[in-house]
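Help!! Second protein's tokens look totally different from the first
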Amino acid sequence: MPVLKPAEPASRPRLPEWLRIRLPTTDSFAHTRSLLDELKLHTVCQSAKCPNHWECWSQGTATFMIGGDRCTRACGFCAVSTAKPMPLEEDEPARVAEATRRMRLKHVVITAVARDDLADGGADHFCRTIEAVRSLNPRTVIEVLTPDFNNRDESIDLVVSAQPQIFNHNLETVRRLTPSVRSRATYDRSLQVLQKVRQRGQGRIYTKSGLMLGLGETEEEVTAALADLRGVGCQILTLGQYLQPTLRHLPIIAYLTPEQFEAYGERARQMGFLHVSSGPMVRSSYHAADFSAPSAT
């Protein structure tokens, strides 16, 4: 199996026109940054070098990243630092809840670094954050984007017991590329996590997942991955272009056109996904609030 390696500077593909963004300069952006600094909160927007963070912060939204900003895994696509994590901050759930209140979020996304150093993988911290946010913001839709918790039933059950409305766990890429793209995580384990949440949520929790495209996957492999996600009952899907955060990360093999993303999106809808967001700039939490439905069944 070929292993993807970081690209040399000279081989980095030229950014196509549809991926060039104009940076907004608004008071809302500065306000969001100031609030996050005041409450000492990490966001995946910053830590993962998300290209949409200018837009999202300017609109007064952000994806909170709990459990610190040091990850125990070293995925080839991710800009989050890999290092020995710091101890969990006991007041972090309350700070996330306060930020949600001040930002008047109707839909909040809470993610985390992988915490393989913790017995429960950080599941209890997720649970306490969900409870804190719901206590202070009872009308806010809560979406979590979790690691795989090494597929431990007790950790998955703990997060499910807190009843977030949406449980997101990303498949990230197709089966063939998973060993090269992801650290420790496996393709089948991620499918199993989504299946367990779907079954144990008893129709009250939506399941969501996403793929990055442009890492060398084929059309047939993408279709197979979508079928696998539907096979475990996944209901919400995001498809976006992989963008190399630094030259030390995995290279971009191809830039997909907006038309290709639209075609994949339409295929996914025909396969039965309730909501699909597919486009070059789409990320797991991008415009997450666009999804709404009366029932998770």
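Here's the second one for comparison:
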Amino acid sequence: MKTYKPTSPSRRGMQTIDFKKYITSKDPIKALTFGRKRDQGRNSQGRITVRHKGGGHKRLYRDVTFTYDKRDIPAVVKSVEYDPNRSGFIGVLAYKDGERRYTLLPKGVVVGTTVIAGENAPVEAGNSLPLKKIPVGAYIYNIEIRPMGGAKVARGAGVFAQLIALDGGYAHIKMPSTEVRKIHAECFATIGQVSNDEHWLVNSGKAGRSRWLGIRPTVRGTAQNPCDHPYGGGEGRQGRGLRRLKTRWGKPAGKGQKTRAPKKYSNVFIVSRRQVGKASKGE
């Protein structure tokens, strides 16, 4: 991590990633980038459905591939790059057939490393295999939920899941949230842990850096009026005055309260629910 001298109040305690240790190229490949409109918390009707989003620095989108459609063709990692749209580092893969693609890199993979995706690929960091071919106990990321559906699970910086069992055509995966879930054994995943595992140690130092990232301020419920929040009102500083946590709309939230839909379609794939209060990232 990179620390700073307290030359100003915002510099005091500030910690950032020392990108010079990891990044090998600053300029992205033009053919693999394009502009993209950011929804900033709005749905297809333009209404805000996720609060506290908006503004932020303009971003160039890198076309990172999460599909496993290029199999049994070795590729060499040509560069390690920063991506403003995600927390992990990305890299350029130069395939033997001449194609280049961006991919999400695992921890420990550097420039010059050869990776491959396929049924019989070696079990090494950066290689991609079907879950049925991965040894039990291995750390994995970039996991498909449906065969050929593209990676959806475990894509954040420093995150990994763990394969803990194979049974009846399904793999039992311990998610970063500690939930154990069944995924079809034909689905692909990549060996290793997502790069930039120091991401959670970053200390912004000031509110302005959050605004650069597109994160708007959050007002505490107890600081609001009674008409705006269940915790609002009262003379002076007050506690919430309620036994259970609530959201702004009166729905239960956090601290062990179940918020999952009781009849959700994917309930049949959950072997054990996540343990509330446990550390994330599979720890």
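Reply: Different proteins will give different token patterns, so don't panic. DSSP finds one helix and 17 strands in the chain.
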